[in-house]
Amino acid sequence: MDYLCFRTLCCKGPPPPRAEYDVVCIGLTGSGKTSLLSRLCNEATDNISPTTGFSIKAVPFQNAILNVKELGGADSIKKYWSRYYQGSQGVVFVLDSASSDEDLEVARNELHSALQHPQLCTLPFLILANHQDKPAARSVQEIKKYFELEPLARGKSWVLEGSTVDNMDAVKDSFQQLIHLLEDKDQEPGRI
Predict the structure, then answer these.
(1) Segment 74-129, tens digit of pLDDT
(2) What does each C-alpha distance from 19 to 24, 64, 158, 179 come to in angstroms?
C-alpha cells in the first residue's frame, strides 16, 4: 500500500507550467497601485510610500503569473513612462475614483495617452477605479462616462472595474478578467 501512495504522490510529475505575462501598471501618485499589488502578493501594506522609478512584482494566480512593472506616478516620473512600455503584453491603469476634479482630469488625460500610445494601443487594459470605499468616490459608471471610454476604447480589449484594498476578492476577479483578455490575445491568428 505504501508503494501505491508513493507512486501516486511522486509520479504525477511537476505541475503544468503557468503562462507568464508582462504587464505595465500606471496611474497617478496616490491612486493605490502599490497597495493593490502588495495585497495581491500577500505583502504588508503598513509602510507603503509612493513609488519612485519603478518596481516589479510577480503576481501569482492559479492559471497565470503576471510580471507587473509598476511605474511611479509623480510628475517627474510620468514623462519617462513610455520608456518602460516595450515588451508589455497588457496594461493596468489605476485611478483614484475619490480624487479631486483636477486630479481626475489629469488621470483621464494620462489614460487617453496610454490608450493611444503606439506600444500600448493594441494591448488589453484593466482600468481600476480604486478607492471605491471612500465617500467621495465616483461610481464605475460615472468614471466610464467622464473618461469617455466607450468611444475612445472602441475596438480595444479593456475592462473597467471598481476596486478597494478592503475587497481583494473583487480585485483578484478583475485581474482574472485581464488574464482572460491576455489569453484571448495569445489565441489570435498570427500569434506565435
Answers:
(1) 999 999 999 999 999 999 999 999 999 999 999 999 999 999 999 999 999 999 99
(2) 16, 5, 20, 10
CA-based diameter of the chain, in Å? 70
Residue 53: closest CA among 81, 33, 28, 27: 81
C-alpha cell at 46: 503598513
For 192, residues 6+ apart whose C-beta sits below 8 A from its C-beta are none
Q: Which is nearest to 76 in space by CA: 52, 93, 55? A: 52
Q: How far apart are CA 33 and CA 48, in angstroms?
A: 10
Q: Determine the straight-line distance between the first and last CA of the chain, rounded to whole angstroms.
A: 46
For the four alpha carbons of 33, 103, 176 and 53, in that order, the dihedral sign comes to: negative
Element (H, E) at 102: helix 101-116
